[in-house]
Amino acid sequence: MGLNQDKVLDVKEVAEIYGISDKKLYDMCKKKQIPHRRLGSRIVFSSSALDAWGREQDKKNYQPN
């Protein structure tokens, strides 16, 4: 995967994508529940890491009939 395929997102963007508050997202980061990185005082997210995390969450939540 090339660098141009990965996008860096900030807290506001990710909170909007997932439909949660900034505060909830900060809490998830603090509890290491979502992949993120710190750049100085900023928290940023990799779109590819979030995609992979989302797929893993789907697998955990999948309940076959």
Automatic annotation (TrEMBL):
InterPro entries: DNA-bd_dom_put_sf, HTH_17, SinI_DNA-bd. GO terms for molecular function: DNA binding. It holds the Pfam family HTH_17. Residues 8-56 form the Helix-turn-helix domain. NCBIfam families: excise. This is Helix-turn-helix domain-containing protein. It comes from Paenibacillus larvae subsp. pulvifaciens.
